[in-house]
Amino acid sequence: MPAPRKPKLAVWKFASCDGCQLSLLDCEDELLAVAGAVDIANFPEASRAIVKGPYDVSLVEGSITTPHDEERIHSIRRSSRFLITIGACATAGGIQALRNFKDVREFTQIVYARPDYIETLNKSTPIKDHVSVDYEIRGCPVNKAHLVEVLNAFLRGRKPNMPNYSVCIECKRRGTVCVMVAGGTPCMGPVTQAGCGALCPAYNRGCFGCFGPKETPNTPALSAAWRELGVADQDVFRVYRTFNACAEPFQRESEAHEQ
Amino acid sequence: MSSKTIKVDILARVEGEGALYVKIKDRHVSDVKLKIYEPPRFFEAFLRGRKFDEVPDITARICGICPVAYQMSSCHAMEDAAGVRAGGQLRELRRLLYCGEWIESHALHIYMLHAPDFLGYEDGIQMAQKYPEVVRRGLHLKKIGNTIMKVVGGREVHPINVKVGGFYKAPTKRELLALEGDLEWALGAALETVRWAGSFSFPEFERDYEFVALRHPSEYPLNEGRIVSNKGLDIEVKDYDQHFVEEHLKHSNALHSTLKGRGSYLAGPMARYALNYELLSPAAKKAAASAGLGPVCSNPFQSIIVRAVEVVYACEEALRIVRNYETPDRASVTVEPRGSVGYGCTEAPRGLLYHRYRIDDHGMILDAKIVPPTSQNQKSIEEDLFRFVESHIDMPKEQLQWKCEQAIRNYDPCISCATHFLKLHLARE
């Protein structure tokens, strides 16, 4: 009997820093096992060998910011059984979505001597604005354990075991004393999805929202609590306008504090 | 009339998106273009109006492979603007974190991205089928670099513990001493890596580069020093803009940086090594010599050995720091912003990373300039390719194409950074 065909994995990059796909290579202990279980068919950051689609699972990093990429994502969707986005760029547009609130022509002039050489869209948009997405892994960057868990789940046909509660729960589990209640440090933990293991509070700093909004976040209540700590409106505005600026609840809250 | 084109539409095993076009006409190279099509992300534009203390977290997102470099250059620039210095154990912790990034980034490049070219594999995973123990050694070395990043920085990609003025939380003496055993193993593995890389066969190819790197009087450069070259440049970081210019060429979304009136130069491990050889430890020098390197290496294909020598240095330096560390009373120094301009230049794994910020009295950024190593090396990469193809004009196309890709990977180019790169097109017309 022939050996069963190994599932084909592809990794695709759009506008991003490479950090989320690097997280796959950062699975130093699991990488060779993953490579044994799946056929890494397209992963240019790691290999010059490219196997044609279709692919069983495509991991997509980065946001859509150029006319060419706007087309490319459709052909990737067509050749992928499951399409999973990895990281804040692919799920919410990333830090580069800060252009969405400004005039991109002005941005191009600030950075480039010859803006006419630059081809870019006015907005940086998440993958789900262009094609259907089967699963989103949050984080700036993603947690590498989540990559392994979600790949495993899709390859075995089960639901990924992923958190949808807030960072606060992770702090409690970790036994970290609340930096906001006890220390007066503004923290986005109550409105941010868990997944990082509540890193920042464990390092004596407030969460700054890398993993994006949790389910039904009460951002106005958090902003009111921040105001009591003496945080100015413009600072509340900027904190929501960072790595997940275009995630809907964060965008709404930033707009409420725009001056 | 014979002509051909070498084209590689997606350059593999590099960080980011790029392509290469080489045109050959009548047995001579007529054009080389390293095309960087990584989409622009406009960091320097949206940094305007952000507060000085947000900048290290934001600029880290330029590159997932070398976030510490971005955090370090921006912290130093902000501290320069405010006229403060983070010394003592804070300075040591920064060096330790940077050693972690060098080990992690260099081990990834040596084992997973560059070595497969020398041994004829498409990638590190294929290579692992023939050399499982070697690849495991590389991955474990990389992991130890990442462990330093985790202990000092909080996580491997985009560490969260770095702040302007120092750190949010200083690790304890015990946490750092726990790294000692791993680092001792890593030092042994790094020495093995130098021997292994030294056993590869290298194309005969040398160039008379102008090497540019930081130089510090008493230590191999990471965070501080003067910007120097082997051809007479010796300046303070704040004078960078007077000596270097950035050009915007149509074929690249990354600006090309050159030395005014002099042209291309080379930044990165080969430059640091040539300009700071005497500051390497005896063990690192001995390893380099036994792998066939003199005090200057001018063959870019041998950069893989130089990177391995730097891993030896980084492991020894990390060991020195963890053994002598005392937990500081305060994890950071206070930084009060003032209206001024701040400059920061540190040695990213790929080379010099320059930041300049103009800040107002409230600490808000008025303008930002960031020059990553890959944009400094673009011109040098194109010149290497020109010379290499010219001297190997009769090589069969497929082999020539692979060698061209390898010549680019010599630089461990980080295209995500440079655009803030690679397909190969080889055309014989």
Q: How is the main sheet of chain A built?
A: 5 strands, parallel
The rough form of chain A would be described as globular
Nearest-angstrom radius of gyration of chain B? 21 Å
Total count of domains of chain B = 1
Multimerization state = heterodimer
Gross CATH architecture of chain B: Orthogonal Bundle
**Radius of gyration of chain A, taken over Cα atoms and rounded to an integer in Å:** 20 Å
Please provide the ordered H/E string of secondary-structure elements of chain A. Answer: EHHEEHEHHEHHHHHH
CATH superfamily of chain B: Cytochrome-c3 Hydrogenase, chain B
Per CATH, what is the topology of the largest domain in chain A?
Rossmann fold
Could you characterize the architecture of this molecule?
- The complex is a heterodimer of chains A (259) and B (429).
- Chain A has a five-stranded parallel sheet, with helices on both faces.
- The model of chain A has no long low-confidence stretch (mean pLDDT 94).
- With 259 residues, chain A is an alpha/beta fold.
- Chain A has eleven helices and five strands; from the N terminus they run βααββαβααβαααααα.
- Helices cover 35% and strands 10% of the residues of chain A.
- Chain A has two domains: 8-156, NADH:ubiquinone oxidoreductase-like, 20kDa subunit (Rossmann fold); 167-256, no CATH class.
- With 429 residues, chain B is α+β, with helices and mostly antiparallel strands.
- Chain B has one domain: Cytochrome-c3 Hydrogenase, chain B (Orthogonal Bundle).
- Helix content of chain B is 44%, strand content 17%.
- Chain B has 15 helices and 14 strands.
- In chain B, strands 1, 2, 3 and 14 form a four-stranded mixed sheet that branches. In chain B, strands 6-7-8 form a three-stranded antiparallel sheet, covered by helices on one side. In chain B, strands 11-12-13 form a three-stranded antiparallel sheet.
- In chain B, helix 5 (124-130) packs across helix 6, helix 8 packs antiparallel against helix 12 and helix 13 (373-391) packs antiparallel against helix 14 (397-409).
- The longest helix of chain B is centred in the first third of the chain and has 32 residues, at 88-119.
- Chain B is globular.
- The termini of chain B are close together.
- Classes of the chains: A alpha/beta (259), B alpha+beta (429).
- Chains A and B meet through helix 1, helix 2, helix 5 and helix 8 of A and helix 1, helix 4, helix 5 and helix 6 of B.
